[in-house]
Write a structure and sequence with these properties.
By secondary structure, the chain is an alpha/beta fold. Helices cover 47% and strands 20% of the residues.
């Protein structure tokens, strides 16, 4: 069975490129365009991994990660942050809410696929 991945990003181009690339690798992909939708889809589908944009409307990625990590049913899902914010303080904030890894934008899709594979096989 293919691993399920939730991609949450409010940028339609990034959402599309990342989702299509993951699907081409055989992953089942669920898509969210804001943090609230990401939390709801994570609770509904229990993906193996979430790629979460940290700066999204409705509920930020930081708030969504905090909510998912505080929920007994979703706390063990691996969550990788995606963000253009690459300062050490931004990464610390993401770590503080429970993020499992951090990929900065802009990124190469090959790097994203490599990091995803690394987290799913470890």
């Amino acid at each position: 069975m293919a691993n399920a991945i939730l991609v949450a990003d409010d940028d339609p181009d990034i959402l599309s490129i990342v989702s299509m690339s993951l699907e081409a690798q055989g992953y089942t992909v669920h898509k969210a365009v804001n943090g609230r939708e990401a939390v709801d889809l994570a609770r509904e589908h229990h993906p193996d991994l979430i790629l979460m944009d940290m700066m999204m409307p409705v509920v930020s990625g930081y708030e969504a990660v905090g909510e998912l990590k505080a929920d007994e049913s979703t706390k063990d899902i691996v969550i990788l942050g995606l963000s253009a914010k690459a300062m050490a303080t931004d990464m610390e904030r993401a770590t503080d809410v429970g993020i499992d890894g951090y990929i900065t934008k802009p990124f190469r899709i090959a790097h994203v696929l490599s990091v995803v594979e690394e987290h799913l096989t470890s």
